[in-house]
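Bumping with the actual sequence this time:
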Amino acid sequence: MLRLFPLLLFFVMSFNASAAVSETQQSALPVLVEQLPTTKLNKMAPLIEQIAATSAPQVRAILQPLMDGDLYYLKSNKRVVSVYKNEQKQYQLTDVLTAEALPAVKKSAIKKVRTNNRLRGQIRDLLANLDLTSTDTEIRIAALKQLLDNPNQTGLTAVNKLIKSEKDDETRELMSVILLIEQLETGSTAEKLSAAKQLSNRLEPTVKNALVKELAALSNDSKSTDTSVKETQSKEVQSPETLNIEKKELKTVLTNAIDNIEQQASVFSLAENLFFGLSLGSVLLLAAIGLAITFGVMGVINMAHGEMMMLGAYTTYVIQQTFPNLIEYSLLMAVPAAFLVSGFVGVLIERGVIRFLKGRPLETLLATFGISLILQQLVRSVFSPLNRQVEAPQWMSGSLEINPILSLTYNRLYIILFALMVFFSLLMILKNSSLGLHVRAVSQNRDMARALSVKSSWVDAITFGLGSGIAGVAGVALSQLTNVGPNLGQAYIIDSFLVVVFGGVGNLWGTLVAAMTMGTFNKILEPSMGPVLANIIVLVSLVLFIQKRPKGLFPQKGRSAE
């Protein structure tokens, strides 16, 4: 027992010493903060370093406002505070040391703690290094990504110490990448060779840049000479022949690593274009699916279909303005509301205009075109010609990161799922309901359906309202991809008709296949040919296809299909 007493005494003294050091560092923070108002700009850097070195809980509350330009001090007593401007245009103060909220003051009572771009960069690095020891994994990863893009010696030293105790696999892997890049830049030829081999499958842009930079430096004769001198001075003395062999091997490994990364990048870039193509196809599907059943049942060329989408988008905007505290639920509220608004307007158009023009497609086209102009002008009069911004809910913001190259934005991902839900819901209605039976009967043989007591005029009205309502739902989705304006629908009406004709008039499966094909084909061509030429190629391809198959991919069936 007596033998254990000295060891126990040593641990107690060590703990007390470390606690005393920590208390001393934190007690030094108020003294350092008091120097901020009076320190000259050229001497601010070491003071900031000393503040960060205290590791006190208040460090972030000091450095973050200083970097953002929100750190001030009271002229009366030099008290350092963070500031934000309230609605009354007064400056609300918070003590950076005690987090105490102070009474609001006018601008004349405070003065900003000066900083510049160089100091902001220094503070950004210090904050990132501070986040490396955070208990939150996401914060540590974000700090490591920042360090990867902007390395500094303090951060590299911290990563070298923390990597052994890091338990999260993703975080530890990112730490390893940072250290390997540092090894590639500063290590010996053998160390660079090892680092290049390990980095050959990494997709971070910084990794590729480091590999390309090292390959360019290796190809430079002067760089090769400097490297030989460093190798000679190192502990491991090698002959010039051995060094030349290692350099040739390093050059080969670097070239292969860059080629491998570029090959993987091209594959993931294609996957990203496919995702964007499916996203565009989903929008085209929502825009065209209502037009498909309207055109298929009634044979009406509805040029006001785009304005039904516009009404749905403006319905979303009105709901967000009416319920500003329910932004997270606004889209869920907007979907049925947009369907009812656009559907009701569609029924009015059919009952008021289109039913008097049956069998006269040219007059119908001109009439619906005039209605589209009236609706556009009505929206301009009510909401003004300016575009309106519809706010995205939090659950639709951000992206799902697959790897550093490929990320899927949540808004487009949800729109794809939403379009498929609308499609299959409409398919179930048309297949398993009496309305769907009547719609299919009228679309295949109107005269026979009327002979069997089907009220074709009301089927037309309901079908037109259903198609317009789905267009309104498409407007809700479009409000998350673009600004809401009076001309919103005009950008999609032509593509909607192309989808309907390409897929087959009145065929929902044809509309699905045509929309996804057009969207994907368009987005694959855009990176190499540009958006204008890609659209031209798609249009020419459709023209050639329709010449071979005038009825589309899935032609309509029935005795009156001709």
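The tokens above came from a reply further down the thread. Confidence is low (pLDDT under 50) at residues 1-25, 221-236.
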